[in-house]
Amino acid sequence: MKQIALLGATGSIGRQTLEVLRLHKEEFALYAMAFGKNVAEAIPLIQEFNPTIVVVQDEITKEKLDREIEHSLILSGSGGLIEASVADSVDVVVNAVMGSIGLPATLKAIEAKKTIAIANKETLVTAGHLVMDAAERHGVKLLPVDSEHSAIYQALNGENPKDIHKLIITASGGSFRDKRREELEGVTVKDALNHPNWSMGAKITIDSASMMNKGLEVIEAHWLFDVPYDQIHVILHRESVIHSMVEFVDRSVMAQLGSPDMKVPIQYALTYPDRLDLTMTKQLELEEIATLHFEKMDMTRFPCLQMAYDAGRAGGSMTTVLNAANEEAVQMFLEDKISFLDIEKLIDKELSNHQRIHTPDLSTILSIDKMTRERVRSHLN
Ligand code: NDP
Ligand code: MG
């Protein structure tokens, strides 16, 4: 039986991970879970799964939970996330928190030689070099949960990485894929949260609308698969049936297909290299779908994707700035404090003003992350 530490248990990926655990009770047990402040959502989950350790974001939330929960050890903050991730009994850490907050616990879990199922792409964007270097040094597997990266991982099964000619990442286009740039002027939070194919957390849904999600995924793919940016392509594919592809040097292309359901890549990361039934997922009925569409990505229509490529190619601390500015700007948009198009303007401004550091260490990354967020916030004054 695999013992799981699930960071971000109350979120979109977290709840779907728990659905997979419910389905395979003989295979998996929840040893630890972490969430932010959402006590009402968490209490029934704690009662159901009875984890040994529960981690919350802060002391106030811990006090609230202490009054309700008896049988679990309750911890808080970044230290709590680390303690839950490195606990002796834990086999797999599922990192499904939102944002670069997941970085320190990921690094410590790697040092403790835990297998990592990584949904938390911001961790790889902000510090991919540290994460991949640690994983190599400690011989730890990083199993992608993001559907595109899971597809590529599956397409690469048994292949020699030297034979990769290019990675082709598919993009659904997000909620504004049929709008021209001029039409983005007055769009609301509600419009942006209305994704055509996937139901996800708020931040990633906004990232999908701005195409920053695809930009973050390009950087994520660069680190996970060690492929240069010139060999990572993005194409628009409205149906989200092909989750991504690998073209090899002999021009043979491997694609992974399936219904758009995150439980598939979540479960694959938990069972790898094996597979288990996933009866709740809709089978792919290709006759029903009949036609698949592909379009070239328009980089002027989606400047956030171009910014991500540029930051990735520049390397070093540029992607830390890209990620931190984006996280803060998206949060400000969700709070109705800035417009949708302000998001890309604020990120662009931070990137233009940043003096790149070639190989930042963890403390440099955390301080750049913090300063970037503060500067982006200060635009409200
Ligand atoms: P959600 O916003 O739905 O969930 C985020 C989770 O993180 C919640 O459980 C939240 O708790 C928790 N959390 C937030 N801050 C903290 C903190 N300081 N300490 C501990 N826990 C915290 O996000 P998603 O599930 O959509 O996304 C999670 C990650 O997975 C992101 O990196 C995203 O890019 C990636 N991803 C998501 C996909 C999806 O389909 N949703 C697809 C591919 C990747 P609380 O509820 O209390 O706020
Ligand atoms: Mg994805």
Automatic annotation (TrEMBL):
Please report the organism this UniProt entry assigns to the protein: Halobacillus seohaensis
Please give the InterPro entries that the UniProt record associates with this protein.
DXP_reductoisomerase, DXP_reductoisomerase_C, DXP_reductoisomerase_N, DXPR_C, DXPR_C_sf, NAD(P)-bd_dom_sf
Tell me the protein family, please: Belongs to the DXR family.
**Could you tell me what reaction this enzyme catalyses?**
2-C-methyl-D-erythritol 4-phosphate + NADP(+) = 1-deoxy-D-xylulose 5-phosphate + NADPH + H(+)
**Which positions in this protein are listed as binding Mn(2+)?**
D146, E148, E217
- EC assignment: the record states 1.1.1.267
User: Which key words tag this protein in UniProt?
Assistant: Isoprene biosynthesis, Magnesium, Manganese, Metal-binding, NADP, Oxidoreductase
What's the protein called, per UniProt? 1-deoxy-D-xylulose 5-phosphate reductoisomerase
Q: Which GO terms describe its molecular function?
A: 1-deoxy-D-xylulose-5-phosphate reductoisomerase activity
At the top level, the lineage of the source is: Bacteria
1-deoxy-D-xylulose 5-phosphate reductoisomerase C-terminal domain sequence ranges: 142-225
* Residues reported in the UniProt entry to bind 1-deoxy-D-xylulose 5-phosphate: K121, S147, E148, S172, H195, S208, N213, K214, E217
**Residues of the signal peptide:** none
Q: Which cofactor does it need?
A: Mg(2+); Mn(2+)
Q: In this protein, which residues make up the domain named 1-deoxy-D-xylulose 5-phosphate reductoisomerase N-terminal?
A: 4-128
